[in-house]
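Data availability (excerpt). All sequences and predicted token strings are deposited with the supplementary files. A representative entry, DUF2336 domain-containing protein, is shown inline so that the format can be inspected without opening the archive.
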Amino acid sequence: MTTPARHADSQPRAADAARAGARLRRHWRELMRLALDAPDALACAMLYPHAGGAERKRLEARMFNARSERLALAACPHTPSAVLGRLCTLAAADADGTLATRLARNAATPADGLQTLAVSLAVSLAASLEAATPQQNAQRLAQLIARHPLAPPALLEKIAAHTDSIETLRSLCENVGVQADLLAQLAGRGIAPLQRLLAIHFATDARTLHQLWQSTRESAVRAQVLRHRACPNELLRTVPASGSERRSLASNVRTAGEILTALARDDDAVVRRAAATNPATPAGALILLCFDADTLVRRAVAVRDDLPLKVVEWLAGDSDVWVRSSLARNRACPRSWLDRLARDREADVRRSVTRHPACPMPLVTLLAGDEVAWVRAGVALRDELPGPVLHRLLQDTDIDVLAGVARHRGTPQATLARLAQHPSPDVRRAVILNRHAQRRVLLPLRDEPYPLHRVLVFMHPGLTDSDRWRMRFEPDMEARARMVGHLAGTLAAARERERHEQRAADGAASPEADTHQLTTTVEEAG
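Structure token line:
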């Protein structure tokens, strides 16, 4: 039973909902018109996943009418997968090999679209065999599908079973989506050019790696087996003669500590550097490596986050600037040594101190007045800055320093507004990237000369949907596509919410709903 008060309350809500629905429909129609009138079809492609029925037909007519538009959309990395899937159907129907090749090369082409291309590929191969015509285009398409990361596993298995082409099999071995059992089948063929690729693939299992080790004497293949995370344990227990194999053994975190200690004394500096970067290398070996004659080995030690305090002390006095610089940025470097490094003669070392996550505030204050702007810019990039330090940096004139303070969350909005008018695009971009910039700071930046900046402004959380709607006349093709896609998604979500609310309102206003509500109230009262 519906009361008069309930009717009075629902009428304004219904009127507001009707106005909102009309506005949504009006905006959608305008977005459709802008996309259909755009000089390129990419804006239509961004609308396509959110459209339906007759609207999709209109968008398809605009996107697919000209072959040049089809080819452009097939090659574009921003094209939605729904459009790419539809293009796969058209490519198969028209036997358009160039279009199919571009689609197979596009990483966003969906699995069902690749399946469609594979069917057309089989037909094309059969036709070329009957007519004794060249098959280069079909073979190239097969290689691209075999390499595509979204290709269905069943399709990849079918390609492997029906081809003897080394290039196609090589593409299968390079596909990150290939399953371990298919890699094992490929290894069982004993094809030498594929063995190194199989040893590299992260999905190759221990049994297949052991098979590859037994079936080859190629040092490059064995080196990849030793580097692999699934390398059988028995292969990690001896030191090989080959330098490339020892380098791989030294880089494997599952290599035993005693072997890593031996490799830390290897004659090959590259082997010693690999041991220096291995987290499993024992502390005793690190002490030896921090005095290594090769500079690159000492640099590899300096970036480790598990350095003993004595090693830090030795590296802090190293003659190489990059060793000291890496150490100054390293979490393992204690505060007591940061004070010394903050007064280093090299600006790169002092800059690295400013990037240390636990740099003490007295040192931050000291380095904020450094004579080298690059060091002061490092201070400006810190998340936490004392008020006086931030104030001092705000008076700086160097572009890198100003770009740092423009991204700082503590920078006053009035200062951000001033920096938003700076002649340097780096400073203005830093203002845009500041997630704390307010709407009044961002609005003038909607007219930035750089399309990337306008897209970043468009996506900033400080703008309202109405602000973004006013940017719909974007002239740049890719920027316009990004904006149209976002607006279309927002409108589609709002329309779906409107439908849901309308269904809920209709259900609440129905006699059955009123009767149910009255029955529930009576039962609760009883």
